[in-house]
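Today's session is about reading a structure prediction critically. Students often jump straight to the picture, but the first step is always the sequence itself: look for stretches that repeat, for charged clusters, for runs of hydrophobic residues. Only then move on to the predicted structure, which in these notes is written as discrete structure tokens rather than atom positions. Here is the chain we will use throughout the hour.
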Amino acid sequence: MTFIGQSTRRVEDERFLTGRGIFVEDVDVPGQLWAYVVRSPHAHAVTERIDTSGVTGASVFTYSDIAGLGLLPCATAVATVEPMKVPPRPALANGKVRHVGDPVAFVVAESKAAARDAAERVVVDYRPLPSVVDAAVALAGGAPVLWDEVPDNLSFRFQKGDSAAVQAALAVAAHVVELHLINNRLIIAPTETRAAIARYENETFDLFVTAASVHAIRDHLATAIFKVPPERVHVAAPDVGGGFGIKNCLYPEWVMLLWAARHLGRPIKWVEDRAEDFVSTAQGRDNITTARLALDAEGRFLALDVSTVANLGAYMSGGGPGSSTNAPANAMGSGYVIPAIAMNVRAAFTNTVPIDAYRGAGKPEANYLLERLIDLAARRHGFDPADLRRRNLIANFPYTKALGSVVDCGRFALGVDDAVILADRSGFTARRAASEQRGLLRGLGLCCFLETARGAPNEGAEIRFAGGGQVELRVGTQSNGQGHETTYPQIAADLLGLPPETFRYIQADTFQVRAGNGHGGARSMHMGGAAMTRAAREVIAKGTDAAALLLQAKPDEVRFENGEFLAGDRAIGLLDVAREASLDTYVWNLLDIITFPNGCHIAEVEIDPETGLVTLDRYHGVDDYGTLINPMLTLGQVHGGLAQGIGQAMLENTVYDQHSGQLLSGSLMDYALPKAADLPDLNIVLSGTPTNANPLGVKGAGQAGAMAAPQTVICAILDALAPLGVTHIDMPATSERVWRAIQAARK
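Below is the predicted structure for this chain, in token form.
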């Protein structure tokens, strides 16, 4: 039986739905203490005095206690114009706080309530300083300075591409369109907030944590913070209730928990509440871009010029600089033939929560700006939006993009054709007329997307025969909702000819999984699946030699089929061979090739011009993710990404007060996440072209929805508003923002 390609229900869902999932908050250990963090109420201030004299029954730690610890590192290498300026980031503020929520003191007590009560008795004398929350303002002369070592707030400049060629093309182009775009900052708000339990026993640090990329976190803790060998740091994650990238990095709380556990000699638990999450967990997006697209008279793209100001927040988070540099560079130009592209990025420190990787990490921004430009060019210069895209989409493969990425395969123009049929674009005129009869505006947005799926290169996988008929799959990638407990056994079942229930999936434990690059970049099936495939093939090769001896045959006379080794009329099962010879296999698979999931999406909206209320009425898409391991799970990933992309387009916006730096959208009362009622049926058809970049032919689907939805929805809104003269709107297109745009156009 073939298991790859089957829409098998997730095996892990049974325990989640019956309350048997294991999350950090569910676990308590004997003798544990509880921690609570004292956080700054100011966006920028000097901490002149921290008075703990009123605290009883608890331990309070400040920067002076941990001054000898290492600093939180920035793990992302970026080829900047000048060396990147990375100010020191200790686990607790050292004399100055730089954003609301900055950790100032770490309180440990016998219970969670006692720790909170003790924290309220810590008195901090702050001397407030001027703050800046807007990246462009931070780079303007006279703005408040966050760091003495960065007097202009500029961390780095990043440039890529051929600027001279771009300028030459702009000078001779028949058409040039330009947009100034804001990619709004997002609060991620995963279902499970951050939490951890720390222990120090037998000279070993142990962190049980709601996180992803446990090996990277271990390495940072060992080498950068505690200066001990990695084998003395154990990091493991149980079930994780969503992460989307922001749980991949090292946080100050992880450092303090381990330090305090060693200092006090007892385990310590910490569970973040939702209010803390809003002001301390990394946030996403937040940049301002001016972009220009040059076209010839027939509408062929000539050049793309992109200038971005990126907001880093108050500190350089581990993956923060990559979200505005390396990641968008790989995706810049999307799936189109654009001979010349130039990027110029300036990254600023501001008095806001640090930015890190969030679902797509720069690639949604790259797709958004180009699709907005294409739609503007079509509207302004009389091109059909679908035809303009077809004319410029990559048709010959492999295609080397202007910034160096090599796209190996795809059906880009055919995807547009299929989407047009799927969405019944020809019937849109009648649907628009029907909306108008009800006093509503109707618009259609048609946009493409290109994802660059790989994340960190290289991955490890181990197949271990555990006895009792069980086979362990130990993989260095990590699931926090993607369904790996189902998909990896499907792959192994296909390769090794054993039922999926034979396999036990093990992840996210640095003592059980030798190495791994974790979660991020839609990499798991591409990187981890490739490593698993290689490991399975080595198991079969080992088994062939062992089976030859057991079957009294030559190795070249033995073949492997359906879980058995066959030689003539003699046969022996794989599990039987494993009982007689060691077939355990570990591989570290070297693979740095990027794959390119892609698609075309079409959205339709209705707008009430009197109130600005936008209703997303229809959403269709045709996507290419290569070989599908489990189509049902693939669609689940896409739908989740679409919900987040639609949320960014229509609802979500992180708002800081421009003067005080206070987070005004500091709770779910003020920050609007999308609900089921905000979404129409998401009609996505999967039509893939397998890639040769890995042995499975997979391309990765985890981030695609968040890359496709923002521009598709905004272009539909602008199409609806075009008859009123509205030509531009920034995300999120809330009813108030749409209403104001309508009123401004009517004046």
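Discussion point for the tutorial: Residues 377 and 644 are 27 Å apart (CA to CA).
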